[in-house]
């Protein structure tokens, strides 16, 4: 065993001496493979960097668009809330002249419709990306609606309810004014009738006086004629 171990050790020493005695030989081909691998890794890293930048840009753009849309929607909501919070003020003077209920309520509704039209256009743009796989067997496409068909209906309902209550109040005011006017007309009519009655009485007395004077004159003329004949 000792001889075997000594033989193995001597072989290791001789092999190591032979390896150390051989010079290190390098070739250009050895560096080409390494350079190619390094270039491939650099290209892969560059592609990954480009993809990451594109994803970040898309994410930032999506966030900006979302912030803009949220800002626009918040402005629309605040405008609709301000419109709905502002009560409709009607006065009797508004109904004088060329008044039209259609024009009044049309102008009020048109203040809310532009916001609805813009939101409807945004929803149509979002629904335009629906794929053909969403089509049903009967030819109708599925269309999910995350928002109500007419988002300003609550504002319009509150506005119309407010206007109806104010119209009822205006009707009461008009009925009160008409009652007072009727009382004034009745008082003036009674006063005029009394005045006309007094005038009729005076005319009757004047007619009586004229008739008496005429009879008296006729009698005087008759006496004068009798005197002249005699």
From TrEMBL:
<dbReference type="InterPro" id="IPR048625">
    <property type="entry name" value="Sec10_N"/>
</dbReference>
<feature type="compositionally biased region" description="Polar residues">
    <location>
        <begin position="126"/>
        <end position="147"/>
    </location>
</feature>
<feature type="domain" description="Exocyst complex component Sec10 N-terminal">
    <location>
        <begin position="154"/>
        <end position="216"/>
    </location>
</feature>
<dbReference type="Pfam" id="PF20667">
    <property type="entry name" value="Sec10_N"/>
</dbReference>
<protein>
    <submittedName>
        <fullName>Putative exocyst complex component Sec10-like protein</fullName>
    </submittedName>
</protein>
<feature type="region of interest" description="Disordered">
    <location>
        <begin position="123"/>
        <end position="147"/>
    </location>
</feature>
<feature type="region of interest" description="Disordered">
    <location>
        <begin position="1"/>
        <end position="20"/>
    </location>
</feature>
<dbReference type="InterPro" id="IPR009976">
    <property type="entry name" value="Sec10-like"/>
</dbReference>
<dbReference type="GO" id="GO:0005737">
    <property type="term" value="C:cytoplasm"/>
</dbReference>
């Amino acid at each position: 065993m000792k001889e075997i171990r000594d033989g193995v050790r001597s072989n290791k020493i001789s092999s190591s001496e032979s390896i150390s005695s051989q010079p290190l030989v390098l070739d250009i081909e050895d560096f080409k493979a390494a350079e190619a691998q390094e270039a491939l890794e650099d290209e892969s890293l560059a592609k990954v960097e480009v993809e990451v930048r594109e994803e970040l840009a898309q994410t930032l753009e999506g966030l900006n668009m979302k912030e803009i849309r949220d800002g626009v929607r918040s402005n629309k909501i605040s405008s609709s809330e301000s419109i709905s919070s502002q009560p409709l003020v009607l006065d009797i003077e508004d109904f004088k002249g060329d008044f039209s209920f259609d024009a009044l309520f049309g102008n009020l509704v048109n203040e809310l419709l532009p916001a609805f039209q813009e939101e409807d256009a945004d929803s149509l743009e979002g629904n335009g990306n629906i794929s053909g796989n969403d089509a049903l067997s009967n030819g109708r496409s599925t269309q999910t609606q995350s928002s109500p068909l007419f988002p300003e209906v609550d504002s319009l309902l509150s506005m119309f309810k407010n206007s109806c209550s104010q119209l009822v109040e205006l009707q009461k005011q008009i009925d009160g004014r008409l009652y007072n006017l009727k009382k004034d007309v009745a008082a003036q009519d009674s006063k005029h009738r009394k005045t006309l009655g007094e005038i009729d009485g005076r005319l009757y007395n004047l007619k009586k006086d004229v008739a008496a004077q005429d009879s008296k004159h006729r009698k005087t003329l008759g006496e004068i004629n009798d005197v002249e004949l005699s």
